[in-house]
Amino acid sequence: MGNIGLTGNFEACKIGKTTRSSFKKDLERTKVPLEELSVDLMGPITPTSIGGSNYVLVVVDTATRFSWVRFLKYKDKAKDKLIEIINKAENRLEKSVKRILTNGGKEFVNNFISNFCANRGIENITNCPYTPQHNGIVERLNCTLLDKARAMRVETGVPKEIWAELINTANLLRVRTSEGGISPWEKNFNIKPNLKRIKRFGCQAWVATISYKRSLTIELKKVSWSDMSPNGVSTEYSWKKTSGYSIKRCNIQ
């Protein structure tokens, strides 16, 4: 059989095989703590968390990789939580945020955020639609937190409604974990993190409830350790009830 000659314009074939060009590595980033923050909002997440949240605000410091998470019932509250994080971080570190990177969602691109940034001299940079690679630092962190949360849930067997506590614990552990010999916590605060009070998620514990109305009667309840506050001085514990799970916060010793 002779060779079949192929002639003509293969433009249609080229168009059909078109793919996006590979993204280059992140642009040159600052090495100054708190100068640049990458921001994203995950959700809605179902089912609603036991605390009533459906969204997770994730903020990460480009220089130190220190990260904050906040849980929201409604996405329009993201702007308030973002400003709260910025104000507290600036006050504690005595540094100023110069730039925030967002995905261009309405929760971050609005008059409220625009006025806040203008008054503080903060540049609000938004990535192009459908290109999360432009804000890759926080996008990769989202995947990391979800992977860790899923692993802890599989290990402990807690219900899906505990997802907020799982993600929060995943973040607390991540910022205290060394990366190349130094953790994001130490990079951020210039001090090593205190790991003494961290327990395994879901481990059994006993909580003593003292009743002052009944001659200092002490009631012991078997619970599961489920979360720790960012400052490490209080913890959450949970126990199963006939109607689901209940979570309380208490001081730890």
TrEMBL record:
Pfam families for this protein: rve
Keyword Nucleotidyltransferase attached: yes
SUPFAM superfamilies reported in the protein's UniProt record: Ribonuclease H-like
Signal peptide from the UniProt entry: none
Reactions the enzyme catalyzes: DNA(n) + a 2'-deoxyribonucleoside 5'-triphosphate = DNA(n+1) + diphosphate
Xref: PANTHER family: TRANSPOSASE, PUTATIVE-RELATED (PTHR42648), TRANSPOSON TY4-P GAG-POL POLYPROTEIN (PTHR42648:SF11)
Protein name: Integrase catalytic domain-containing protein
Organism, as annotated: Austropuccinia psidii MF-1
